[in-house]
Amino acid sequence: MYRIIKFSLSVGYIMLFFLYKSSSTTIPVTFDANPKESCIGCTISFSVNSVCNLENATFYWTFGDGSECSTYVPYTSHTYNNPGMFNASVLVVKSDDSGSDDITIDIYKLGSFTIDAESVFDIKGNPLQFHIHAWKNCVERYQWQ
Q1: Domains of the chain: total
Q2: What pTM, to 2 d.p., does this model score?
Q3: Radius of gyration of the chain (CA)
C-alpha cells in the first residue's frame, strides 16, 4: 500500500511530497484439514489457526480441484468428487497484512470386491456372497448377501 506524506517548507512556495510503500506484516497462519485423506464424496473440514487476532479477516480458500471460495470465518468444508492428491491452500487478508499456508489432501476411490463362499448356502440353497468395502487398505464394512 502506498501512502503520501505531505509537508511544506516555509522557504518560498515549495511543497514536497514523499511517496513510500508501507511494509505489510505477514500473518502467521497454520492450515489444517480433517481428515487429510478420505474417499470420494466425503466432506473435508478446513480450518486456520493463528497467534494473531483474525477478526475482520477474509479467507480465500483454494481446494486444488478447481474449486475456490472466500469466507469471513477461519473455517470451511469441501467435498472432492475425484480421486487424487490435491494441494489446498488458504490466503488470509486483514487490512494491509496477509498470510498463507497449504496442505496436501489425498482422496481415494472407494473400492469393493466380492468373495464367493461356494460351500456356504442360505436356507433356500443359494450360495452366499461376502462383500468387503475398503479404501486405502482400511476395511469400511462387511456385508453378507
Answers
A1: 2
A2: 0.64
A3: 28
